[in-house]
TrEMBL record:
GO terms for molecular function: [protein-PII] uridylyltransferase activity. This is CBS domain-containing protein. InterPro entries: CBS_dom, CBS_dom_sf, cNMP-bd_dom, cNMP-bd_dom_sf, Diverse_CBS-Domain, DUF294_put_nucleoTrafse_sb-bd, GlnD_Uridyltrans_N, RmlC-like_jellyroll. Residues 166-227 form the CBS domain.
């Protein structure tokens, strides 16, 4: 037994585990001997029952190509492990073909025990996701992993991901302690129940915080805190929960956006259980969310650029499996957000702690969480007001910071905004008081050009920094919008009427010629829906940014009927789906930059008829907004 423990201490990632855990793992290992040249696993066929740790001999691992040639051949030697990535990220099926060489002996760890370690120890789990992310940077490796037949099999799981609800997911019971529990007692409880997250409750038995293995490491051991202090003094926040009727994909997106590792499951106002992000991700095989996790683990701009280039393939697969366009938008936005956050955090690490609290916000389609594959940078910075003698120093820091972030995003693949709506533009990096004056002047002037700025910055969304700053700005806007602003809404309504649906007199799709093709601009065709929904949201002081979420809120308030709501939301996301498919096809099949021109001959008759009906719907709503906001029925 001692020999096995000593051996495991030299094997990554088992060397990350505590000694007492390694002793338990050593008990679970089964010794297996393989005959020379025997095929142990077949790529994408063999379902792994666990993982192998080589003790003697070697494994020859490779991919077979279509002509049965061995590709990317690698040998694993004693102290190396096979099967972790396959079990966690490939639906338990072997990624590669494996042949045993002479004198091969392995320690076999059953799948259930291996997954238990992954769920209990975050660094252990991340070893495999990081390794997979690193390997996927190799084009040849990625090609064989993403073989079309393999893609089809894996994306059957994606169908379940987007239809499955949290109530069907296996989650753990909530283990908790009270606020005055000593830290050492909390750690003992965690060990006793074999959990990595312990919740903390107040006198009313309400959960107010939590403690994880990482909390104990960072807040207790690293800080040399007295373990007799109450657990409330070192607990983490905030508590994040989701209804049991929510979809699995919604839970994963929530965990990414809040950066939480643990999610409470709620039913009828009570917490029923808890699930970790590792648990959810490990069940999702090749889902886009494992890809998002790999983005978060990227170590360089080159890696991030490579990740962004892979997004069109994910979009194509999701749309091909019938996943809704609004979900695909969210996946794209989450990848873009993850990349931007990595860049921001790296730049702060290079430049040092900011001299003031600030918020980095995104605008436009990214602000609305409606990003497509043809995207540029739209962002701004708000920093807290400082005394006169500090203002120039603060401003100098944030302008340099914005310029560095913007340049790096441009190199990764997010091009500069042609309209200049970027934080690197000194106009859009300012103090909170300056931003308040901006909004007041735009509302009071209410000229067509200032209304466009107001619309752009009304679609702002928090990405990084001190969220209280953007909350204060929204509270300020909420108060201002309760004053009469007829002129503002008049010009905003006119802005929503600027782009007419491209219909001919005979109700056919109106096109124009680009090269040899007859096309229409699908982005401009969608713009009226975004604009008119924004006007109604602004009028009713709804500060959600996403078009679909705004429509939900407007329906809830009775501004739109159920029929009107369905007409608009179905129209918008039908056009969005076509737009995303076209852009992904241009990138993948034609190696071209994405664009928004739709070739009329590329559409089926059914698609053309549907689009014509959508354009009629948009025209009808434009008539409604004309009456409600401009008092001009004839335009």
């Amino acid at each position: 037994m001692t020999d096995r423990v000593s051996f495991l201490k030299k094997v990554a990632p088992f060397n990350l585990l505590p000694d007492d855990v390694l002793e338990g793992v050593a008990d679970l290992l089964q010794e297996v001997t393989h005959q020379k040249e025997s095929v142990i696993y077949h790529q994408q066929v063999t379902k792994l029952k666990g993982v192998d740790i080589l003790v003697t001999g070697a494994y020859e691992t490779f991919f077979y190509d279509s002509e049965q040639n061995k590709r990317i051949l690698e040998n694993l030697h004693p102290g190396q492990l096979y099967g972790g990535v396959s079990v966690l990220l490939n639906r338990k099926r072997s990624l590669r073909t494996v042949i045993a060489k002479k004198g091969t002996k392995v320690y076999f760890l059953p799948r259930r025990d291996f997954r238990g370690l992954c769920q209990a120890y975050e660094e252990f789990f991340h070893y495999f996701t990081q390794e997979f992310g690193r390997r996927m940077m190799d084009d040849d490796f990625a090609h064989f992993v993403k073989h079309p037949t393999f893609f089809e099999e894996n994306y059957i799981a994606t169908d379940q991901l987007y239809s499955r609800k949290m109530e069907s997911v296996e989650y753990r019971n909530i283990i908790s302690c009270v606020t005055n529990t000593p830290i050492y007692e909390a750690a003992r409880l965690m060990g006793e129940h074999r959990i990595s997250c312990l919740f903390v409750t107040n006198a009313q038995q309400k959960i107010i915080g939590y403690v994880t293995d990482i909390t104990l490491r960072n807040n207790v051991v690293a800080q040399q805190i007295d373990a007799r202090l109450p657990v409330a003094s070192i607990m983490d926040n905030p508590i994040v929960s989701i209804p049991c009727k929510a979809f699995v994909y919604e839970a994963i997106l929530l965990m990414f956006s809040t950066k939480t590792q643990y999610l409470l499951i709620e039913e009828n106002g009570e917490y029923r259980g808890v699930i970790s992000r590792n648990k959810l991700l490990s069940e999702q095989s090749q889902s886009p969310f494992v890809f998002i996790q790999s983005v978060k683990l990227a170590l360089s701009d080159d890696e991030l650029r490579s990740k962004w280039k892979k997004v069109p393939e994910i979009v194509t697969q999701l749309l091909g499996r019938g996943v809704k366009a609004e979900i695909v938008n969210q996946v794209i936005t989450n990848v873009a957000d993850s990349i931007a956050l990595k860049v921001i955090e790296d730049v702060i690490a290079e430049m040092g702690t900011p001299p003031a609290k600030f918020v980095f916000m995104v605008l436009g389609s990214e602000g609305r969480k409606e990003q497509t594959l043809k995207t540029d940078q739209d962002n701004a910075i708000i920093y807290e007001d400082k005394a006169n003698e500090q203002r120039e120093l603060v401003r100098e820091y944030f302008l340099k910071f914005a310029d560095t972030v913007s340049e790096r995003l441009n190199n990764i693949g997010f091009s500069y905004c042609t309209g200049g709506y970027m934080a690197k533009n000194p106009k859009w990096t300012h103090s909170l008081s300056h931003w308040k004056r901006n909004y007041i002047s735009w509302m009071e002037e209410s000229l067509p050009e200032t209304v466009i700025k107001f619309s752009t910055f009304f679609d702002c969304r928090y990405l990084y920094g001190d969220v209280t700053i953007i909350n204060e700005l929204q509270e300020f806007l909420n108060e201002e919008l309760q004053k009469p602003h007829e002129k503002l809404f008049f010009h905003m309504a006119n802005n929503a009427l600027q782009y007419e649906p491209p219909l001919t007199f005979f109700k056919n799709i109106k096109t124009f010629t680009v090269g040899s093709q007859e096309v229409f601009d699908i982005k401009k065709a969608m713009t009226p829906i975004v604009d008119l929904v924004r006007v109604y949201a602004l009028k009713n002081r709804i500060f959600l940014t996403n078009t679909g979420e705004r429509l939900d809120a407007l329906k809830a308030q009775g501004i739109f009927t159920e029929t009107e709501y369905l007409e608009l939301i179905q129209s918008y996301y039908y056009l969005m789906s076509l737009r995303l498919k076209k852009q992904a096809s241009l990138i993948i099949n034609d190696n071209r930059e994405p664009e928004n021109f739709m070739n009329i001959t590329s559409l089926t008759k059914i698609e053309q008829v549907t689009i014509i009906e959508i354009f009629k719907t948009i025209r009808n709503f434009q008539g409604k907004i004309r009456i409600n906001f401009t008092n001009n029925i004839f335009g």
